Amino acid sequence: MFTVEGRSYARVTAPVQTSSAPAAAKAVSHPVNNGNNCGSSSFSGVPLISYAAPKKKRRGGAQNGQKAHRGARLAQASWSSSSGGSSRRGSDYLGEPLLIIPRGSQTSTRGGPHYFSMGYATYGQLMGYHPEYYQPTQQLPVPGMQHRESFSSMGSSAASDSTSSGSASPVHFAHYWDQMAAASASPQSYEISHLAAKRDWIQKASSEVPEGSLGITLRIMSYNILAEQYATKKLYPHCPAWALSWQYRRERIREDMEHYAPDIACLQEVPMGEFYGYFLQQFQVQGYSGIFKPKSRAKTMDSKYQQTVDGCCIIFRHDRFELIHQDWVEFNQLAIKSADGSTDMLNRVMTKDNIALCAVFRVVESAVPSYILAVNAHVHWDPEFSDVKLIQTMLLMNEVEKLVAKTKHDLNVEDVPIVFCGDLNSLPDSGVVEFLRNGRVSSSHADFKDLPYRSCLQKLSSSQGRVMTTAPADDDGPHFLHHPFALSSVYDEEDMPFTNFTSDFKGVIDYVFVSRGKFQTVGVLGALDPTWLEEHCVSSFPCPQIPSDHLPLVAEIELIP
């Protein structure tokens, strides 16, 4: 997402061809607008590009000196000039953003636009020094549906008006998919817009700087991006195959992040190879740095296969934050240390390789030395293992307590405020959320499933110099397990009715907590507009407009001295 002369635009990415496309499928191309609207130095229509899988590996390079994607078949797009009806051709790469340049009298004597993999789409009435960019709306057909002339959102008359006004046309793609996708397709088309998923900003406090405040406002994001290996057609049957492809979704995820422009972004389910090979590279040029930790299983794998292991990352603006220290929490290793002979701790908790990532930052613009601790956690997913989720959270907070104590000692500061983000896979009434929000939870909580964890939990508490307390004046009452931090959610319960929406689940499982009294919540990104969901017939995530099964949480918080 970017802005030109006060107007916002989105990048355009072609969908990726699946290897299961029928061999008999034939790539065809039609111009969106007729020849009267296409000239050698200006044009208002964009050729329709469609693809078919190659029958064999393509040899040689593509047109215009570009290298073809491995296994990709270049489809040609033809159009006519307004002067004589002569045919012109261009090329495109599968799954890559398009750069569309009219090559007329100002850029070439050959005329007509060509396609290159350059990151965004551009064209205009005159190229000169002021190119126009595509507006953030594009039309894509449902998988399996061939192009229909009536599918175009711009007729010739509309296109002519576009030429005179200098505005941009949508890009159209047609694609062939396997027989299953074709059989389930309908004539409906999806309108893709980065801003189509309407979410209002909820103001929580005055944006004016209160007296005595540091005047430092931070924008925080927590986002489970749905790793490629989990985004299968079996799990997400309602999502079109092209919208489920990683090449499509990662571009939408990047656009989400660029649009909301967080100062600190905590992402979950990020594949190792994608963090280092895509996200870090994309955001380094925008002033960000990042750290990453994969799930514990990566340690037992060959380097080649480690690239697909997902984990947690923290991406931050290095002009606002200096990374002082990073640490990570491997829940299975802590479970071994805390087992104290508990077979349930070993058989249920130790076998789950979830992790959390922690980072201590110095707030660069603070006039007085100020530090914060960012925590990014991804807790086990299975509803049948509520005990594992709660114990993982307790293990994490135990390590956070150690890290805060060490940071305070090493940096000689009185406090280190916490920003806690994560996909906790737990509902608001769960033991996990109760423990984080209230600072304690009963050892007899239902989420423990009456399993004999008490001895190992007692060991965990005593390791930090605490004891499991009982209800006042009642030694036989419930025993409580504690953490020492006062945390509050930046979201109120009514702000977000759900953060995760699939065919069999809809609820809140993602959270952002901050240190109470150390941060003031200025505002949060609210829920999806129910009318928008109904109008776009969205029955679950991901979908063409929403690239993950989770919604990103975004909050602005103000640091209080």
TrEMBL record:
Lineage: Eukaryota, Metazoa, Ecdysozoa, Tardigrada, Eutardigrada
Coiled coil: none
Pfam families: Exo_endo_phos (PF03372)
Molecular-function GO term, any one: 3'-5'-RNA exonuclease activity
Low complexity: bias regions: 78-88
The Endonuclease/exonuclease/phosphatase domain, residue ranges: 221-550
Protein species of origin: Hypsibius exemplaris (Freshwater tardigrade)
Protein name: CCR4-NOT transcription complex subunit 6
Residue segments, region Disordered: 54-92
Highest rank taxon of the organism: Eukaryota
